[in-house]
Design brief:
Structural class: alpha/beta
CATH class of the largest domain: Alpha Beta
Number of helices: 13
Strand content: 5-15%
Mean pLDDT: 96
Keywords: Aminotransferase, Pyridoxal phosphate, Transferase
CATH topology of the largest domain: Aspartate Aminotransferase, domain 2
GO molecular function: alanine-glyoxylate transaminase activity; L-serine-pyruvate transaminase activity
Radius of gyration: 22 Å
Low-confidence stretches: none
CATH architecture of the largest domain: 3-Layer(aba) Sandwich
Enzyme class: transferase
Strand order of the largest sheet: 2-10-9-8-5-3-4
Helix content: 40-55%
EC number: 2.6.1.44
Largest sheet: 7 strands, mixed
Distance between the termini: 67 Å
Region (Disordered): 1-32
Order of helices and strands: HEHHEHEHEHEEEHEEEHHHHEHEEEH
Number of domains: 2
């Protein structure tokens, strides 16, 4: 075959892909949430180099805004290049060394993910048990510490799979520190949406994702570590198993030196900066109050429809409302109906609660009264289609 014929064949084989036209959904599931127009605009601004002086200034601003949102003065507060699972793995994979013991919860899907990551890091995992849909009991946590003497304790502040908010966080951190253990908090569904005070509650490490209460596209995920945790990271006997997420190497990029480690997701950092600016403009405590008020209206409306919340009132998570599927109702058919007829996204349950609950987010830019009215009207229609 001649060169000209080969070229013609290649051109004929080119995929015929049209213009990008995703549907315009209202996102009321467990994440991502609707993105604020200002964040989308920020993401579309021109790129600069990841070591450009202007980008270094932006990095400083993002770190300061993250400290405000986490309620911390931790110097080591960064966005990890990746989704929330990357910041989760950075936290666990750097703090857990081979031979360490990590205590993890059993009361939701993401405690199971903590377990998997700790095991992959070479740690031994022990568990503190609680049923799905209930928080950890400090008495059980103390008993687990007395029995196993773990080096690291992980808990999920806002369990996305069950709609449960963990209360008594300072009590849990006190128990851990009395046993010389480090504390890792999963704040993926709480940061920027419900009260979280990293310094006041004495949390050593907290990680999150940008696509939930911060209403930012995934790709640059918040992480904060205090000096105690960073001393453990920098004093490891073995290097972490991940080069990319090795915080001792990332310190060179996000610390004072700003030396090359990897090419940061520049547009995602732009987006996160704008999302965090919105947090600061609203005020973090006002933002917590807004989420609680708007989600409270959602909760009341769901109960008016005859639906039951999965979590008791004292453990209710405003940013993620887990709703029991009534007997005789096909949960998947309701989800499909909302998507097809209303361009509205909610989600089914995960793990032990698959098929038993719907998960309805009320996060960030999605936590608006008009969205609550929309989801309630659409749910009423979808349930009516099945005779509820």
């Amino acid at each position: 075959m001649s060169d000209a014929s080969a070229l013609t064949k290649q051109e004929d084989d080119a995929p015929d892909v049209g213009e990008l036209t995703p549907p315009d959904r209202t996102l009321m599931g467990p994440g991502p949430s609707d993105v604020h127009p200002r964040v989308l605009k920020g993401m579309s601004t021109p790129l600069v180099g990841h070591l450009d002086p202007s980008f270094v200034e932006i990095m400083d601003e993002v770190q300061e805004l993250l400290r405000y949102t986490f309620r911390t003065d931790n110097q080591w507060t960064i966005p990890v290049s990746g989704t929330g699972s990357a910041s989760m793995e950075a936290a666990i994979g750097n703090l857990v060394e081979p031979g360490d013991t990590m205590l993890v919860p059993t009361n939701g899907y993401f405690g199971g993910r903590m377990k998997s990551m700790a095991e992959r890091a070479g740690g031994e995992v022990v568990e503190v048990s609680a049923p799905w849909g209930e928080p950890l009991d400090p008495v059980d946590v103390e008993r687990a510490f007395d029995e196993h003497q773990p080096d690291v304790f992980g808990f999920v502040h806002a369990e996305t799979s069950t709609g449960v908010l963990q209360p008594n966080v300072p009590e849990l951190t006190d128990i851990a520190h009395d046993h010389d253990a480090l504390v890792i908090a999963d704040s993926v569904t709480s940061l920027g949406g419900v009260e979280l005070r990293v310094d006041e509650w004495d949390i050593d490490v907290a990680y999150s994702g940008p696509q939930k209460c911060l209403s930012c596209p995934p790709g640059a995920s918040p992480l904060t570590l205090n000096d105690r945790a960073m001393d453990k990271v920098l004093g490891r006997e073995e290097r972490p198993r991940s080069w990319y997420l090795d915080l001792s190497l990332l310190e060179g990029y996000w610390g004072d030196d700003r030396s090359y480690h990897h090419t940061a997701p520049i547009s995602n950092v732009y987006a996160l900066r704008e999302a965090l600016r919105l947090v600061a403009e609203e005020g973090i405590e006002a933002r917590w109050a807004r989420h609680r008020a708007v989600a409270g209206d959602l909760k009341a409306g769901l109960q008016d429809l005859g639906l039951e919340m999965n979590a008791p009132d004292e453990y209710w998570l405003p940013s993620l409302n887990a709703v029991r599927v009534p007997d005789g109702i096909d949960d998947g058919a309701v989800i499909d109906h909302l998507l097809e007829e209303y361009d509205l996204e909610i989600a089914s349950g995960l793990g032990d609660l698959e098929g038993d609950i719907w998960r309805i987010g009320c996060m960030g830019y999605s936590a608006r009264p008009k969205n609550v009215e929309y989801v309630l009207a659409a749910l009423e229609d979808a349930l009516g289609q099945q005779g509820f």
